[in-house]
Structures are given as C-alpha cells and as structure tokens.
Amino acid sequence: MTNPTPLHNRHRTVLPDWLALYYKNPIELTHGEGRHVWDADGNRYLDFFGGILTTMTAHALPEVTKAVSEQAGRIIHSSTLYLNRPMIELAERIAALSGIPDARVFFTTSGTEANDTALLLATTYRRSNQILAMRNSYHGRSFSTVSITGNRGWSPTSLSPLQTYYVHGSVRSRGPFAHLDDTAFTAAAVADLEDVLGQARGGVAALIAEPVQGVGGFTSPPDGLYGAFREVLDRHGILWISDEVQTGWGRTGEHFWGWQAHAQNGPPDILTFAKGIGNGMSIGGVVARAEVMNCLDSNSISTFGGSPVTMAAGVANLAYLLEHDLQGNARRVGGLLLERLRGIAATVPAVREVRGRGLMAGLELTRPGTDLADPDAAAAVLEAAREGGLLVGKGGGHDTSVLRIAPPLSLTVAEAEEGAEILEQALHGLE
C-alpha cells in the first residue's frame, strides 16, 4: 500500500476508526454526470453502486439540480411547524403510489430514521416491544435499528430497547431450507414463523423485512413468502413493515415496490423508504395507513425531515423516474446485465451464485468448489474493477463476500456491457 494521501490522513485524524472506506488507496469523488463519476486525480469511472443505491436516476440530473437551485433561492429551511408545499406534493404522490389505503406519509432524513419511526409506530400501536426480523437483515445504524439487524457485521452491540426474534426465509440458497423447492421452502419458513411466535411472550408488534436484502448481499426469498407470512401475522394482529429503502422506486424492474412480489394478501401496514427518491439528497420516510400513523398521542415534529429543498428534489426526481419509465429500463437493461453476469460466472469457479432483479445484482464469491465465503477475493475484485474504471459495492451476511451492483436506473445497454466487460476482467484476475 502506498502512503496515504493528505486528505486520507486528515480523515483518519478526525473521523472514527469504524467509518469504513473502500479501497487500499481511498478515492475522493469530485463530480459526476449521468452514470459516471470522476475522482480528484481526473480518473473517470462507470458507477455501478450509485452512492449505495442512492443516485437513482443519474448524476447531476438537470431536472433535479434545477429544482434544488430554484427552491434554495426561495427558502432553504422552515421545519414541519409550517405548511410546506413541496412536502405536501411529494407526500401526495408517494401515498398514491404506495398501495396502502388511506395512507399517511412522514418524512425523515435517512432510511435508519425511517425504520426507527416505523418501529416507534408499530410498538406504540401494538403496545409491545417485541419485533420479528429476518436473519441476515440490515435496517440501519441507530440503537433501535441495530437491535433488529440480523447481520453481525453491522450490529455492534447486543443491548437493545426491543426483544427481537429472528425468522428464516430471507436467504434462498443458504441455510436449512436451501435444498427445498420454492413451495416447500415457503412452507418451511411459515412453519418456522409459527414456531417462533410460540416462543414470544404476549403480542408481537411487527415483522420488519426487506423484500430484497441490501447489505445482506441482495438475497431474497421466493415470491409470495411474505404474503404467506401475512396470513399468520393477520391471525395474531401483527403488523408487517416492508423496508423498501433499497428495493423501492422500480429498482427491481418487475415491481415498483419490493413488497408487490408478495402481494397476494394485500399491502404492508407500514412501508419505509429512503435513498433513491432524493437522488443524493437526504430523504427518508414512512408510509402507513392512517390508523397506525396517527396512533402517537404526544407531540412530534421534524426539524430537517421534509426540508423544502430535499422535497423539491424528490418531486423532480420522482417525476423524471415515472415520465422516463426507469422501472421499465431497469427491467430491460437489468435483465440483459444479469444474463451477461451469469454467462461470465459460468467461467469463474470463484463465483458461487449470481442473483438479483432488475438493476440490483449480487455476485457471491466463495473458495472454488466450496460454500466457504471468500472476502479476500471480493476485496480483490473490488480493487481490480476500480483500476479498470468501474465502481461496485460489497455486502453479504457471510463475511462480506458479495459484490453488489446497483447502477442508476437510466443505465444504457452499452454501459451495461462496458461494466460487465470490466467486471469480467477483474474476476478472471482471481485465476
């Protein structure tokens, strides 16, 4: 490793040791355009991670930057104590798109805060601090969301304000049910849920689940599993929280929300969102039916949630997404990219599995011929891809051995092919 840059030294001096950086020689991104970004040395990269699935439409999207600039020229901040036209407009659009009847929307500044709010609502509504969560899950970095995170790499404390029970079913190709077909897998996961509920004391407040696990390595259950869970939850009066921080806004291509792959028994009671809706601006939020959202009996506001500037960005970004059918583009281009990645994987013994939907793909790396995770190989491919001009992410519940691919939803076929070629060369470098 070469000597750290002055900026890296300054980072290490004033920021926490646990604030992770990618790459042996961390890079400073200075600007972006479309699906590309540039670093401080002038190197150009194809961005296949989008600021952790946050740059949803494109870097420096003119429609969003114009909306931000115009709103900042009028008023930047007011808080939720005053009527806020951009916030109301965005809430109306999200409520209509959510699929939740009589929906109410509360805005936050992050996905962590959105999930924290969802837990507050569910535990208050149900008068219970018991939560069901999925194994291998990730829901944020606050004290409450860490306590329902089923991924040890992102859960720094066992202390918790909640009693959490972890349920099987979110990882299709690992664990005790992996050998079963989809129907039997779902039945086994439902039976596990019933068994877990038999261990709970009194009424459980809610199940929280990511339709496709993000940090967990883009794993997902068979379609319909959470719908099958819903039958059990409804019998017990338990709420369903769908964590759409990474799966929302059409990224999976097939659906606008991840929960729609499990919709046979209706929408979730609570939906959380963040990341892509702001295209880089700090927006998170919660959607819930009015009865649940209005259950709080004390005062509550948000100083920064629903900021006029971030809401203006969200309105413009969502309009662009819908007007340009980026969900359809995610389905078409993402399908081609997944096929290309599976073809590459067939020639690389270290790739255990290629999985995903739309523009949300994961490549799990293991020691060839085994199911043993290989985080060193994942780190090596991450580095080699950067050297080739491609930025990807990492994740996975098994020692961070999954490469995460999630470019802006406006990705072109040519850019998908370019990224696949760079990744192919990086993977073959393992041999």
Walk me through the structure.
It is a single chain. With 431 residues, the chain is of the alpha/beta class. The chain has helices at 6-14, 50-53, 62-74, 85-98, 111-126, 143-146, 182-199, 225-236, 290-293, 308-323, 326-345, 375-387, 413-428; strands at residues 29-33, 36-39, 44-47, 103-108, 130-134, 163-167, 206-209, 239-243, 270-273, 284-289, 351-357, 360-365, 390-391, 393-395, 402-405. The longest helix has 20 residues, at 326-345. The chain starts with 5 loop residues before the first helix and ends with a helix.
Keywords:
alpha/beta; four-stranded mixed sheet; 37% helix; globular
Give a nutshell description of this structure.
The protein has helices at 6-14, 50-53, 62-74, 85-98, 111-126, 143-146, 182-199, 225-236, 290-293, 308-323, 326-345, 375-387, 413-428; strands at 29-33, 36-39, 44-47, 103-108, 130-134, 163-167, 206-209, 239-243, 270-273, 284-289, 351-357, 360-365, 390-391, 393-395, 402-405.
